[in-house]
Amino acid sequence: MSDVVEKARQSVLRAIDEYNASEEQKIPRSTEAVLLGPGGVVDSLGLVRFIVLVERCVEDDFQVPVSLTDEKALSERNSPFRGVGALVEYIASCLAPRP
Amino acid sequence: MTLTRTMLITGTRKGIGRHLAEYYVGRGYRVIGCSRGEPDQPLAGYEHFCTDVTDEARVKELFRQIRGRGDRVDVLVNNAGIASMNHVLLTPMKTVEQIFATNVFGTFLFCREAARMMSADRRGGRIVNFATVATPLHLEGEAVYAASKAAVESLTRILAREFAPFGITVNAVGPTPVATDLIRSVPREKIDALIARQAIPRMGELRDISNVIDFFIREESDFVTGQVVFLGGV
Q: Which of A18, A49, A65 sits opposite B60 (nearest CB)?
């Protein structure tokens, strides 16, 4: 696992902890966790709040502003918000140094 | 225990924004303000950021700095606004873009960033936007300004619904003309004609505006959201 992916994973796990601290619906601390769709653990409003927390944690950890809901995210063939693992991968792809 | 609440006011260099900064410092708030330039006069208990409300990166940085020191915004007052009185046939597109950038996009950016902060810790908050009587009065010469503030009214009502689950209320105050730089270039007869259309025909005072804001942000107003209150009986 690359450094960026691992750092992104840690950011997302921290966001999950913050989310779980105040929400009844809990998100498992796992990259296998499904967020949306069949087996998903958050509703649409919960997803909004979770993404806000993830963006905040990523900005704190990487010290760069991020927007996870820009056109790039919305135009991905597979939504980066379908699960925790996909979200980690998407964040890492946004933050990885360009060659 | 009463905790000091933090209020963020945009457009605080002068005029209504400056008055609000002084007024709420006097009421015990920790007041943070912003404008493109430095304030004309220093104010004890007030902190200023030189931030253009239309610059997304700078707006996000302002909130990041507030959060970085463990503070939060309890109340946001979106006061920053510009106007340009002119006949539509003589209005350059650049003017239209600038007015919408400050009045609509700036308001949107601050609402979004403040609501992110207010929702993250589940403590909610209050947002007060600025409308104008120029919108319901359909004032000739103020088409662009009135249209931009109509957008602010619409934002206010919809954000009220979107933010309600997070304990955030969103309302707007719609002032009549107040003696500030915003209307300095408007001929007196135009102002008089406008005032004559109000139920209470007088110029607005700064206290008229802070009075409505006081109502929106008081603890007991947590069931009041999505409202636009016009002054003067318009």
A: A65
